[in-house]
Structures are given as structure tokens and as C-alpha cells.
Amino acid sequence: MHFEEIDNPYTLQFSYIPPQFIERTLVTNEVINNFIRKVPTYRGMFITGVRGCGKTVMMGDIRNKIDKLKDWITVDLNPESNLIDSLARGLYMIPEIKTLFVKANLDFSVLGIGVHIENAELVASNEEDALIMMLRVLKKAGKKVLITIDEITYSTDVARFSHAMSSYANADYDIYVLMTGLIENIRTIKNNKSLTFLYRAKVKELDSLNVTAISADYQKVFGASKDTADALAFCTKGYSLAFQALGYHYWNALCRNSTPEQINLDEVYSELDITLSELSYEKIWNELSKGDKKVLHAINTLSKNNNNVPVKVEEIRELIRMSSNTFTSYRARLIDSGIIDGKQYGFLSLKLPRFGQFIDMHPVM
Q: Which SUPFAM superfamilies does its entry note (predicted)?
């Protein structure tokens, strides 16, 4: 095999479906099947997970799949925009949909889209009127709309959007929403129970990528042995960003060396550490409280002293002298954030790949 850096199939770019993409089939199918069934269980769904876990990529993959279905329209919205106005404009910009609005003799000139129509059937006075007029036409034409919003956070405009979506659902318009967001931002939205639509939206947390699938990918792309590919895949812990970043740096190492045996894996892992830090871990770390960091340092210290196996909760609490009640809140938050793994009862471990090395370089001040 011949390797050229310009042909690297792995990427460090966000918000983009990479050439080497491992699909989470079960979750993808669950989301799509929910929206396309005759009576959807949920009109709104959130995809959540730690930074770098692949939320945006999954949403883009789902959007692309639904966009290919007959009678479906997808519109991606900027979470910082006026969502209702942006949705109306986004629908109008789709040529086949615009034709339906023109034939229905609708006047949206108040929004600065289209032209003023003499003797129009209906004239919109604002973006909310315009969107209701559009949805009526689309329902009559048998069209369904999926809205996607990446990294949603609470705002007054999001609250206004939620109330509007509740109204559209009550009117039985065929409009649905798929959003991504960090768990703490989604929780802030859901804690406001007046936002009925978003309060009732289903939350799907992304789990790790299948390590066996990562190994198979590395074997195919690199021509690596199963043992080598397994070792690389295990290093990623199924973390989506690590899968791409390790693949990216290993490919470049192959370009610089004639055989895999000549690759200095320590250099590759060092490059991986820098990438994970710059693209994810620094941001994750800065969002943690001092107490969170103390817990993580304790887990890391005890784990290193015990061959990197999960450590007992009691030992962590004893090391940082923290009461059970206080520790429970930190434990729950770090598990929800996707930073630590608490699946084994009474034990905790770091969930993110090579996060221990990052923690070593960041003492708690």
C-alpha cells in the first residue's frame, strides 16, 4: 500500500461527516424510525454526549438519510438565530417548496423574501404568520419537515421556538426537530417545564463507538495486523474524536515510514495527546468545578497505582476527604458528562482515552 498525507482519510475537522465514518446503526435507526412512523412517539429528540463523541456527525448523517426520503424536507438552523424567522426563510429557499408557495398565491414580502403579490390569497404580517401559512401548504402537499439544530442552549428565542412547536404539533402539522447539545445545556432547557415541546423531547445519549468496528477499520485502511489494529482501537476507548485523531496521525506516520514496524508509536500517541487536548480536553477541563477536578485527580492517582483498573468509591472519598453526600453529586455530574464510567457498582474509572495523561499536566490550583 502507498500512503500520501494529501490522501489522509481521517480528519480533525468538526461538523463534517468524515470519509472513515463508523455508523451507530441502532441509534440512527431508532431516531429515523421514530420520525417516519405514521404516529411518531416524539416530535422532538435530543442527541447528547461528551464533547467530541460525534453528536454533530450523527445528526448530519440522520439529516442526510431523511432528506433522501420521499416527501421529506430538512432545514438546518443556527441556534444563535431567530429560529422561526430562519426556518421560514430556509423553507422558502428550497426551489421545489418555493414553487408550492407561489402557486398558493402567498405573500411573504414582509420578511424580505419573494415579491409583493397583488390580490394575494394570504399576506404574512410577521414570521410566525408566514410559517403557519407555509406549514398549511406543505401539509396539503403531503410534505414533512425535519429541523436540525446543533449545540442548542437555552435562550428566550429557544423558549419562543418551543412554544411555537407546541402550537404546530397541536395543529397536526408535519414538523419535527432533532437537536444536539451537552447534557447540562439540555437539562437547563428541560428544567423549564413551561417549554412543553422541548420538555417532552426524547434524550438519546451517545455511547462509545464499537472498538471491534474501529479495529476492523484500521486493519482495512492501514493494512495493519489484527494485533496492531486492536491495540490502536483499544487506545481510543471508542471515543469518536480519538478514532479520527489517532487514524489521522497514524496515517501520517505511515507516510513518513516505509513499514508499520518503523513507526514510533510513542510519537503518534504524543501527537494524539496534543490533538485531544487542543480540540476537546482543554474545553472540558475549563468547564469543570474545582471539586470535579479534585475527584478526577483522585481517580487518576488511584488508577495509576493499581494497574489502571477501576477504583473503589470509598478509596476516592478517603483520598480527598469528602463526605458521601457531597461526593455523590460530583460522581453523578461527571458520569452524566461522559467523563467517568460508573457502570461497575461501587467503582469508577476515567472514560475518555488518555485523559489521565492530560490530568497529570493540569494540577488543581
A: P-loop containing nucleoside triphosphate hydrolases
Architecture of domain 288-360: Orthogonal Bundle (1.10)
CA distance 334 to 354: 17
Residue with cell string 406543505: 138
Cell of 163: 412554544
Class (C level, CATH) for 25-205: alpha beta
Query: Using an 8 Å Cβ cutoff, are 182 and 48 in contact?
Result: yes
DSSP state of 77: E
Please state the domain extents for the chain: 25-205, 210-285, 288-360
Q: Residue 243 in contact with residue 22, Cβ under 8 Å?
A: yes
> Concatenated DSSP letters for 95-128?
HHHHHHHHHTTEE-GGGTSS---TT-SEE-SSHH
pLDDT per residue as tens digits for the range 207-216: 899 999 999 9
pTM for this one? 0.91
33-63: string of b/e by CB count within 10 Å (b at 16+)? ebbeeeebebbbbbbbbbbbbbbbbbbbbbb
Summary mean pLDDT of the chain: 91
